[in-house]
Design brief:
single chain; 292 residues; six-stranded mixed beta sheet; four-stranded parallel beta sheet; 25% strand; globular
Length: 292
């Protein structure tokens, strides 16, 4: 048998095609749309998801069925000695804590290791790649979990939101604030910490929102993560719920602001898009975990 298998969920932005190349498993996340359950990138594509979201349909996230999680663990344990599972942050969904509880059951104890890395979307994607690299170097699941949880604070992500409609729908802002914000063309920049989503800055228009995000990232790189940045141990990340053309334009803008750095860009996960809506743009960074 192989030693350590890696599993994540579709909140990571990793599609099934990439998962096959990486040799990992991705659990599709369920979504409830007008009372019907769909699974991300299985019977719910990006195009259909946004079509339903824009039309005003009731779209909400849902935790995976525990049996589906255990079925995938069981399949993997037929091939691997142990499984390392990296789900969405426990601060954003209860599915992580549910998985941690299930991993303590006798049939999984010491075999399934659930990592609460505090991440979602591109940062979670990057963390999965870090885990793959550590497995290739011979690290075991328990040690990888410790490294990733001990270093989970070493990342940041900012997302500019084009419309206040979905923040209002999620109860993060009142209808009155949303109405005034729309009139004034307010485009809030949200900051994702470990399991937290807060308003970082309010800007007038997406152009100023982009500038605010670039400035925030420059501060993170040169102040908050200075040592790692100067050592070349920081990944630069991007994310988008906008069109391919706007996304490419944003990535080029990031590259011009930080010359010489590669930019890994993903579509924002459907789970985040339920709160952010379409036409959002994000930038983030993540320090290489092994350096610490």
């Amino acid at each position: 048998m192989k030693s350590t298998g890696i599993m994540t969920d579709s909140h990571s932005g990793i599609r099934q095609e990439e998962a096959k190349v990486l040799g990992i498993r991705v659990l599709p996340m369920p979504f409830c749309i007008e009372g019907k359950t769909y699974y991300e990138n299985v019977d719910l594509s990006k195009e259909v998801f946004f079509e339903k979201l824009r039309s005003g349909m009731d779209v909400s996230t849902s935790q995976p069925n525990p049996q589906d999680v255990m079925n995938l663990w069981n399949e993997m344990l037929e091939e691997y000695d142990e499984v390392l599972y990296l789900p969405i942050s426990s601060g954003l969904s209860g599915s992580c804590m549910t998985a941690q509880s299930m991993a303590q059951e006798p049939e999984y104890e010491g075999k399934v290791f659930v990592v609460d890395c505090g991440r979602v979307s591109t940062p979670l994607h990057r963390t999965v790649l870090d885990a793959v690299e550590m497995v290739e170097k011979g690290y075991r699941a328990e040690k990888i979990r410790k490294i990733l949880e001990d270093t989970r604070e070493n990342m940041s992500i900012y997302v500019a939101i084009s419309t206040l409609q979905y923040l209002k729908k999620g109860g993060r802002i009142t209808p009155a604030v949303a109405a005034v914000g729309s009139i004034l063309n307010i485009k809030p920049v949200m900051k994702f910490g470990v399991g937290k989503l807060d308003i970082y800055q309010k800007t007038r228009g997406m152009k100023k929102a982009r500038k605010a995000m670039l400035e925030a990232m420059r501060t993170d790189l040169t102040v908050n993560f200075k040592d790692a940045y100067e050592a070349g141990d920081v990944y630069l990340l991007a994310a988008s719920s906008s069109s391919p053309e706007v996304t490419e334009e944003w990535v080029q803008e990031i590259k011009e602001a930080f010359p010489g750095m590669d930019v890994m860009c993903d579509d924002l996960s459907f789970g985040l898009c339920c709160h952010i809506g379409p036409d959002g743009l994000g930038i983030g960074c993540s320090c290489k975990p092994e350096r610490l």
